[in-house]
Amino acid sequence: MDCGTSQPAQRSGSFACAETSEVGIAANELQPWPQLPSEALYGLAGEIVEAATENSEADPAAVLATLLTHAGICAGRGVYIRVGDDFHHARLFNVLVGQSARGRKGTSEGPVRRIGERVDEIIGPLAWRPGPMSTGEGLIFAIRDGDDKEDGDPGVRDKRLLIVEGEFGSPLRAMQRQGNTLSTVIRVAWDGKTLEPLTKTSFIRASDPHIGIVGHITEQELKSLLGQVDIFNGFANRFLWWCVRRSKPIPLATGMDEVDVIRFGDEYGKRLQRAQQLGEVKFSPEARALYEHIYPDLTADQEGVYGIVVARAEAQVIRIALTFAVIGASPVITADHLEAAMAVWDYCDASAKYLYWKASANPLENRILDALVAGPLDQAGLHRALGGHTAAAELKTALQNLQGRGRIDCKGEKTGGRPKRTWELRAGFDTASEARKANKDTVGDLSSENSLRSQTAYPQGGSCRS
After folding, report:
1. Cα–Cα–Cα angle for 217, 207, 309, rounded to 5 degrees
2. Are 192 and 210 in contact (CB under 8 A)?
């Protein structure tokens, strides 16, 4: 099997390994590069992706992510599916994560934009903004309500907005600034609720927002910028994460043929025009039975940061399935739509696992493992290696958790006073990454942690627990 590209592979519940990686980029030693299942390239969407990537270096997964986002936003809020008391629209937020600047993330936008221009002639222009997103108020202003005052701001009547953020690092940096509301507004926009921040001055409001986001970023920049607060506050799991890279080297790529742009654009636009009138979409009996079958797996708790990032799986799958129905102008979600949605989710889930599996939900534990890879450290040396600012109680808890899981050992040496404690990686872990892999971040599972801790044999000198 050629794992050097993101060519489709048959869905089998798990992804085949990526045997090679882009030149100059080391493969993830913990998780394989995901492979796009063929079921994800369903119907007209699949035909467009295949035509768009035939003479292009763009990753099919990246083109598909952009196309799905575009379709859902074009359709508007008039098409929806109801689950309980919640209304889900075909509104997707995506981040395309490249291994490097050569991941050809940006080339995925071109064919969709060209087809989108044909669609605009059929259903009217769609606001397509390049960003950068910098404040929540700025995002609201782009689709703001009008002012009822005479000669007031007329506002923006069309609440559909597609943002293709070529430098997703820019909004991530902006969110780190104190008082910045961008993260909050993005989360509310995904929910589809009225955007109405409580500010003392310059009142601004956007009702019935319908925003789609496609962000581009490299893996290295993502890991350096996405702070813990944006993982735990529900920002990260409102996005679908897509690993993307150059599909193949083409020195002088010709891109999508103009004949295909016209042909697909006209058919795609006519379908979206019909989809705008669909109203409520429901599951077909077959699709409902299939969704009930996969629901336990979608809602199963996962560990660590990866588990937090994929915590909205069931909602994401429904939205993706609805988007495939939109592209087909179908009044019901069929089993085929749901199968395609699950294939997309499988890819995004595997991408999230690739990106976040080794990330600890407690970053201090990873820092301790990194510090100990060079060799054993006593308490004072470890404190210095961590920068000298870690609270004693916080360090004690992290050490106990790692020791209880059998990831590190503590040796107590008798002295004239208190015993001297020395910490080291557990035998068999030659690198911090191996220790992280074994750690698997059983955050919040105290019973499991206590069970592991009770099975741990402490080395000579006694337990270092205090």
Report:
1. 35
2. yes
